[in-house]
Every structure is written in structure tokens, then in C-alpha cells.
Amino acid sequence: MVDSLKKPSFEEIRPGVKAPAKETILTPRFYTTDFDEMARMDISVNEDELKAILEEFRTDYNRHHFVRDEEFEQSWDRIDGETRQLFVEFLERSCTAEFSGFLLYKELSRRLKGKNPVLAECFALMSRDEARHAGFLNKAMSDFDLSLDLGFLTKNHTYTFFKPKFIFYATYLSEKIGYWRYITIYRHLQAHPEDRIYPIFRFFENWCQDENRHGDFFDAIMRAQPQMLNDWKARLWCRFFLLSVFATMYLNDIQRAKFYASIGLNARDYDVYVIEKTNETAGRVFPVMLDVENPEFYQRLDVCVKNNEKLTAIASSNTPKFLQFFQKLPFYVSNGWQLLRLYLMKPIDVAPSHGMVR
Ligand SMILES: [Fe+2]
Ligand SMILES: [Fe+2]
């Protein structure tokens, strides 16, 4: 086989340093927020729980977990061709997402220091965890002769501003969905060791517990701010964030089904399971859950998957850009329409059940 086929080439900013993936609506986002509003937040209603979580963070269960062992020390050239490309993309996306958590939590801990000590320390310790996660993934990329320049990413990535309450909805969900993603892969590979073609997946069990604790922290913060959860606006926003997190993951993963296939997973089944579990988990704190069991939910998402395939085909054709816009337009409109209809689907009201079971 030709060497270039075995080892796909990636665009590099310097030798061995991968050019970051182009930012799109589906790539991991970097956030910034109103730090003063965050610092003024009164957490006294739920301070005990937050302090208990802080104690857990201090314990640092994973202090010795992220150590590369001898299994990494071999040539990974046998992961080649398209699988190699998909692997590197997976590592890059995961690393970027972890690193975005690191940056946000680090900045929050810095800005809250002296003003809100419990929160400041929680954020500092969560940024410690995310730095480890991102570093471990970046090290894994080096097994494929590449790495990300995280300093470059810090300076050149776009930052999205969200008010604190939106930061909480979004980060809560991304931590919990991260937990379900990691644990599902871990359990699958535990049952099918023959599919574990690279050692990083072995680390996912303890790793996902970090994400679970981070999620619990945001759960506790939102409970300390009941107005974030109990009015009609909260219902609308929770629906919005649930849908955007689920849709983004689904569209991303179905597009990369071959990556999941390389570790023996069916991307669609995997996503359906992760969405179901995350929706259930979120229903313990959010006032609403999405009706993901309704067949309409995936039917509409699948229309978006098809639209995106068409959009990619148009973008990679030789048609002049100006004309491409008109070719793409109907698919954008269709995506917008599907997402609107998804948003308007009747959610499941779970607020009444809160306080009964947790
Ligand atoms: Fe993480
Ligand atoms: Fe996390």
C-alpha cells in the first residue's frame, strides 16, 4: 500500500503540530462569561452540598490515574488509513473539549478568588482535572506523530459569551454527557476487549468519574440558584440546551460512524443510549426532559444528517462559491425547520417529581 494512504497527512502549523480543525457550529466551543455577576452569586441555600463537593475535589481520587504505561510504548502504525484519520480527529475533538473546560474553569477560579472562595476553589480543582484530561489526550495524539499547540488554541479560538446561567446549563450538560460517553465506551470495551485497539479507553472508567463529579457541582450550583430552574424561562432554556447538546452530538457522531465502528460500536445505537441516559440524568435537576422516545425525535435528526451530507457534497464540489450558496440554502432552511420542530415538541414535565427521588 502507498505510504500516504497508510498515514493520512494532516495540515500542520509547524512540523508535528496539527493545525486546529476548522471551527464550525458543530466543533467544541470556548466560553467566556460575566465574571462579576458570577462573583456576586449567593450560594448560601446550598452551601453545605457545595462544600461537600469541594471536599471530594480536594481528595483528588485521580491523582495517580493519568500515567501512561508500557502499553502505549509501541508503534501505532497499524492503526492506519481512514481509521488513523478518524482516531486523530477523535483525540483532537476530545482534547479541545477538555481544554475548553480547563480554560473556562481556570479563568473563573482566578476571577472569583477572594470574592467567592468556595466556588473559586471548586473551579480551580476542576481546571486541574480538565488539564490532566486534555494533556493525556494530547499525549495520545503524539502516538500518531501529532499534537495540538494549546497555547495557539487559547489565542486563536473564538470565545462565545454566555451569561452565567447559560454557562451552568451548558457545562452541566456537557459534563454529564461526557460522563455517559466515556462510561459507555468503557463498558462496551470491557465486554469486548478485542475491540480495544488503543489503550486510552482503559482510562475512561476513573476519568468519567471526574466528569460526573463536575456535573454534580453544576447541579448543586443550579440548586443554589432556584430561579435558574423554576420559572417558565428556565423551562424554555433547558429545552433549548438539551436539544442543542443532543443534536450537536448526534450530527457529529453519525458523520463519524466509522470511528465508532473501528471500536466495535454502532454510532447510532451509542448515541441513542447516551442521549437517553443524559436526558434521564438531567431530568433530576432540570424542570423538563425531552421526549426522546418519540420516534419523531430521531426522524427529524436523521433529516438533518441527510441535509449535512448534501451540504458537505456541495462544499467539496467545483461549483463557484457564489452558486454554492444557493445550492446550500434549501438544506440550511430544512435544518432550521427540523430543529425548530424538535424544539417545539412537547417536553416531559419532571419538576413535580423533584424532591421525591434523587
Ligand atoms: Fe474532562
Ligand atoms: Fe469535566
Gist of the model:
The chain is mainly alpha-helical.
Summarize the topology.
Blueprint: H1 3-6, E1 12-14, E2 17-18, E3 30-32, H2 35-40, H3 47-59, H4 81-112, H5 117-142, H6 150-156, E4 159-161, H7 164-191, H8 204-224, H9 232-255, H10 257-262, H11 267-282, E5 288-289, H12 295-315, H13 321-344, E6 348-349
Parallel strand pairs: 3-4
Antiparallel strand pairs: 1-2, 5-6
Helix pairs in contact: 3-5, 3-8, 4-5, 5-8, 7-8, 7-9, 7-11, 9-11, 9-12, 12-13
The structure holds fe (ii) ion (FE2) (2 copies).
Helicity, as a percent range:
55-70%
- Uncertain residue segments: none
Q: What is the percentage of strand-forming residues? A: under 5%
Shape: globular
Structure description:
This protein has 358 residues and is mostly helical. The chain has a domain of 194 residues. The protein contains 13 helices and 6 strands. The strands form 3 sheets. It has a two-stranded antiparallel ribbon. Strands 3-4 form a two-stranded parallel sheet. It is globular, with a radius of gyration of 21 Å. It starts with a helix and ends in a 9-residue tail after the last strand. 33% of the residues are buried. The mean pLDDT is 94. Bound molecules: fe (ii) ion (2 copies). This is Magnesium-protoporphyrin IX monomethyl ester [oxidative] cyclase.
